[in-house]
């Protein structure tokens, strides 16, 4: 048995997307993270940025994840612009992380929603 926290959950839909067992429309990929278009977009631009390691939610994030979280946050502005969000301040985007039942989280693999583009949006 590994002494480390499991980095893959066989029952997790986003782990299956990372493993390409479920198809997705890629936005960006490197060794640590994957970004792909949300299947039910709320806005003209709506993609999800996820760590490849199975971290269930923000509730499990701690100091050991600081470098990974920094890497993800530093990618958001670049990916948002590449995907068609308009420049700040007249454009911009929403960065949303639902956490737990009361936070409205449905998929329990940490993900950052990036939503943007001209309004009105379907939701949000
Ligand atoms: P949550 O409510 O957990 O913050 O958001 C989960 C998001 O994942 C939802 O916006 C939903 O549309 C998206 N989603 C769920 N299943 C799939 C899937 O199989 N493929 C893709 N691309 N997005 C998914
Ligand atoms: Zn997972």
Structure description:
The protein has 124 residues and is α+β, with helices and mostly antiparallel strands. It has one domain (13-116): HIT family, subunit A. The chain is built from 2 helices and 5 strands. It has helices at 13-18, 66-82, and strands at 26-29, 33-37, 45-51, 93-96, 112-116. A 5-stranded antiparallel beta sheet has the order 1-2-3-5-4, with helices on one face. β1 and β2 (33-37) form a beta hairpin. The protein is globular and about 40 Å long. The mean pLDDT is 95. Bound molecules: guanosine-5'-monophosphate and zinc ion (ZN). Zinc ion (ZN) binds next to α1.
Describe the structure using short key phrases.
HIT family, subunit A; binds zinc ion; binds guanosine-5'-monophosphate; single chain; five-stranded antiparallel sheet; alpha+beta; 124 residues
Helix and strand arrangement:
Layout: H1 13-18, E1 26-29, E2 33-37, E3 45-51, H2 66-82, E4 93-96, E5 112-116
Bound molecules: guanosine-5'-monophosphate (5GP) and zinc ion.
Number of separate domains? 1
Shape category: globular
Summed up, the helix count is 2
CATH architecture: 2-Layer Sandwich
Major β-sheet annotation: 5 strands, antiparallel
The H-and-E topology, N to C, reads as HEEEHEE
């Amino acid at each position: 048995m590994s002494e480390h926290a499991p980095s893959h959950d066989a029952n997790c839909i986003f782990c299956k997307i990372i493993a390409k067992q479920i198809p997705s429309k890629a936005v960006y990929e490197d060794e640590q993270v994957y970004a792909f278009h949300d299947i039910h977009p709320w806005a003209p631009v709506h993609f999800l940025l996820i760590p490849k390691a199975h971290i269930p939610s923000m509730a499990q994030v701690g100091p050991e994840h600081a470098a990974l979280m920094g890497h993800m946050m530093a990618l958001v502005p670049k990916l948002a612009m590449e995907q068609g969000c308009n420049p700040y301040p007249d454009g911009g985007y929403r960065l949303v992380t639902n956490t737990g039942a009361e936070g409205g989280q449905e998929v329990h693999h940490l993900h950052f929603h990036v939503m943007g583009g001209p309004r009105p949006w379907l939701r949000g």
